[in-house]
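>> received
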Amino acid sequence: MILMIDGHSFHYEMENLCRVFFPYQKIKVVSELPADEQDDWLVYTGLKALPEGLRISVRVKLGSYEGEDSDTLALSGDVQQKDSERRMAVMLFRLLTQYCGFTPKWGILTGVRPVKLLRRLIAEKGEQEGLDYFRNELLVSGAKTELSLLTMRGEEKILAQSRPESFSLYVSIPFCPTRCSYCSFVSSSVEKTAKLIPQYLTLLCEEIRHTAKVASGLKLRLESVYIGGGTPTTLSAQQMEALLAAIRDSFDLSACREFTVEAGRPDTIAGDKLDAMKRRGVTRISINPQTLNDEVLKAIGRRHTTAQTLSAFALAREHGFGNINMDLITGLPQDTVESFMSTLDEVIRLAPESVTVHTLALKRSARIFQEGSEPFVSGVQASEMLDYADSRLLSHGYLPYYLYRQSRMVGNLENTGWAKPGFESPYNVVIMDESQTILACGAGAASKIKDPYSDGLTRIFNFKYPYEYIDRFEEMIIRKDQVKTVYEQFCRVSERAQ
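>> returned
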């Protein structure tokens, strides 16, 4: 497909909107159409200044289908420019909807944080007008608008507890038993990288101690700890205990509302590891089956079984864990709507305190995308799965408390965290809302330094892969000292503004 951008700078939005309808199609973006280029698959988007206003034109030629639309805006200045992008997106959305025969439920939204957008619209326009704009001008469906509003209300209770000096700690364990076929995270299979783990862990504990000194010097208040990956429970019980001890010995946890470890793969969960986590004050774990269909588990490269998931969950309960999250994914290869419904019903029967329902995202770096050989579930089927999950979880006392989206998601859908009241994860909320500093340790981790006085956010990246992290550790530790420099810059700007 060729996407032609003529006279405007809305390249990013128009390309992403095309990807909503054609997630597997290669899209070539041009500003001029080469004379020898075949135009059987052409999307033209144009903007032209005329005496009477801005002329917006959209034309599509997709095989035998042809459609076009145009409009003239008589507005002026920034309002004209901003609304011209939205109007162009609406035109393109409607033409592609007509061609494809389905209407994506998030309308023209392609961004990651729709709930944050809705909150801003309501703050600017009032609740009813903000909701009307979300539905009518951005074309978000009634169901997704309601889900966004419910989620926003859940988030607000958690965000209200945060202070300007609040921060969260993220710790990366980028190792997994095997690499799932859909995975695009920076993680390495233990089969290939087990020899790196001892040295990695030693240096990680050193980075944790250094980060704690930086945070203490800035008088920051730690409110949540989240150990993710990868699969943190690929560590042995002794290694897990050493990591948790480094965190507890280095940071003041008196204000900490959450201490989560992503136990992740059920086949990595054992009694001695659960005991180590319990001794060191872990309050929340995730046991992530993704599906309770063994054939689907094989298709995505996970070596555990449904029986192991059920056993791991029971074991965690026996070891005293009263706050367990379970992750599921809609849209997995070889899954069906009926199979997903069965999985969800069984998870609800287990009664975990929270359930996170993801939609499969087909990232270019994932094996499933590169091979292109798996029978993908359609966007329509994935949507049915999510609708069922939303209805069933609500009816069983779970409420949505965070929501985000990714590029190339099946059906252009969403990921939603559901929890029983009082069991929400503060970390999940603040990382999506970008309203709090996240200090991150480990390979592939990115610290996000939030300006306490504005919406400013500065990112400081660690090295991506475990071997890089080990080989260039001293250089990375120096980067961590930038946290103090960034906070000092925020303070100077604030003082000048007063």
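>> DSSP finds 18 helices and 18 strands in the chain.
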